[in-house]
Amino acid sequence: MLRGIRLVLFLAVPLAILAGTLAYRARVADWPGASDGAYDYVVRVELPPAERVIDLPQVQGPQDAGRPLVVIDPGHGGFDPGAGQGAVKEKEVTLAIARALRDQLLEAGGIRVAMTREDDRFIALAERPNIARRLGADVFVSIHADSADAEGARGASVYVLSQSGSSQAASRFAARENGADTVNGVNLSETSDTVGAILLDLSQREAQAGSAELAGLVLREAAGRIPLRREGIESAGLAVLKAPDVPSILFETGYISNPQDAAYISSVEGRETIASAAAAAIRAFLVRRTLAEAGAGLRATDGP
Q: Rounded CA gap, 73 and 283, in Å?
């Protein structure tokens, strides 16, 4: 009798373990994002097919296509929150500042404006400058908020594209921002050799000079109005700035990791002041460009 009980227990234990394992696998298979043979926690993101071109955003402002067009890019979005500090998330801060900048540009009139996103959605890094190019934008401004482990780091900064960063911090920043397109270990924005060649082509120097000019104007307008991290222009190999024929800048509005900056860029007053400085710089840049083009046209008409 005792021997029979031992035999039953000997067989029952592994059978119970097997049954429990099968039941667990069946439950995991029903979890959102699970697939056959995959039982780890995985975030799955529905992405458009590679051959599909995403829809272009609405262009607001004057219906005259001859008016200058500014494309504003609120950083991050959707499953990618960006930097965060408590309840403050970069994707929400950047969207609020971008909306404030859009509204100020439209209110003053004479400029058309489009935003890469107007809600909480994910857009691949390569698509953001591509939207500006497809729309024929005159200016591309990407809005972000920084984060750092270093205690006391605070203030806004402005970046332009460079193959090599202006500092080690700029290089680390570029690596972090470019990583936004990495989902489950897969990079969504591999840049081709052709794009790299275009960036280095002499014919694109005008756009790069325009980027530096716009960045300098933003710093000029921001000085004395909002805290600045550095007074000089930063440069880094940022994927979001790789529109080789559109003057493009990345505006880091402050450090979310700094409580003072986080409170400022999250406030109505802070984002309105930041938007005001950026809007004034953009208008000054576009006026300069218009005058330069007019002057070039007059010289061409006068002849040699």
A: 17
Q: Which pLDDT belongs to residue 183? A: 35
Helix-strand-coil percent breakdown of the chain, rounded to 5? Answer: 50, 15, 35
Reference 238, options 175, 152, 302; nearest CA is 175
Task: Tell me how far CA of residue 192 lies from CA of 195, 239, 242, in angstroms.
Answer: 5, 12, 11
- The DSSP annotation for 16-84 comes to HHHHHHHHHHHHHHTSTT-BTTB-S---------TTPPPPPPPPBS-S-TTS-EEEEEE--BTTB--SE
Dist CA 48 CA 299 (whole Å): 48
For residues 75 and 128, what is the distance between their CA atoms, to the nearest angstrom? Answer: 9
- Quick one: tokens of 7? 């035999």
pLDDT of residue 165: 43
Token couple for 272:
């309105």
Helices in 112-157 by DSSP H: which ranges? 127-135
Residues forming beta bridges with residue 116, ordered by sequence position: none
- Beta-strand relationship, 157-161 and 234-236: parallel
Distance CA 117, CA 98 (A): 9
Q: Which residues of the chain have pLDDT under 70?
A: 1-53, 163-204, 297-304
Cross-strand pairs, 88: 85
Phi-psi region of 109 (alpha: psi -120 to 50; beta: other; left: phi over 0): left
Give the number of other CB atoms < 10 A from CB of residue 216: 17
pLDDT at residue 14, as a whole number: 55
- What is the edge-to-edge ordering of all strands in the sheet holding 112-115? 112-115, 69-74, 139-146, 248-255, 157-161, 234-236
| Domains with residue ranges and CATH for the chain | 1-42 (no CATH), 69-300 (3.40.630.40)
Distance CA 10, CA 213 (A): 79
